[in-house]
Amino acid sequence: MDPADPGLVPALLAATDAARNGRVLAGHEAVLARLAADACMPLAGLARMPAVLQLMTFGLAEARREGLHPEVGVDAVLLEMATRPGKRFVPLETAGQQVAAMTDWTRPTSASSSPKGCSRWPAGWPAR
């Protein structure tokens, strides 16, 4: 996936299944509100994203607070290294393919889907 692709964010937002989000996140509003407050993010703005991407966003916010910044991640570094001398960048996947891989609703979820050792998320959340 090309992180510099201007169509990246629209493609990620377009993949939202509102009905599934409602089922997955039902009953966890207080947890979501706390995560959003901790991350200084407006919860309403994230609601357009698939549930898994909402959680990933909170995880990235926490990593940023710990000093790990995605903009200096390997994808951005490699893209810069390739494009600076004029090399053509060919992504291996699209944003839509990445979303499909992360949101394959045909696979069952289980209690083991919550990050191990994470006290912020109740066991099994957001599996529904």
Report on the architecture of this protein:
By secondary structure, the protein is mainly alpha-helical. It has one domain (8-98). The chain has helices at residues 8-14, 18-25, 29-39, 43-46, 51-65, 74-83, 95-102. The longest helix is centred in the middle third of the chain and has 15 residues, at 51-65. The chain starts with 7 loop residues before the first helix and ends in a 26-residue tail after the last helix. The model is unreliable at 109-118 (pLDDT under 50).
Provide the descriptors you would attach to this structure in a database record.
49% helix, 128 residues, single chain, 0% strand, mainly alpha
Count the helices. How many? 7
Structural class: mainly alpha
Shape: globular
Q: Taking Cα atoms only, what radius of gyration do you get, to the nearest Å?
A: 16 Å
Largest sheet: none
Total number of β-strand segments? Answer: 0
* CA distance, first residue to last residue: 28 Å
- Helical proportion, percent range: 40-55%
Order of helices and strands: HHHHHHH
Q: Give the low-pLDDT segments.
A: 109-118
Give the percentage of residues in beta strands: under 5%
Overall number of structural domains: 1
| Average residue pLDDT | 74
Secondary structure topology:
Layout: H1 8-14, H2 18-25, H3 29-39, H4 43-46, H5 51-65, H6 74-83, H7 95-102
Q: What's the quick description here?
A:
This protein has 128 residues and is mainly alpha-helical. The chain has helices at residues 8-14, 18-25, 29-39, 43-46, 51-65, 74-83, 95-102.
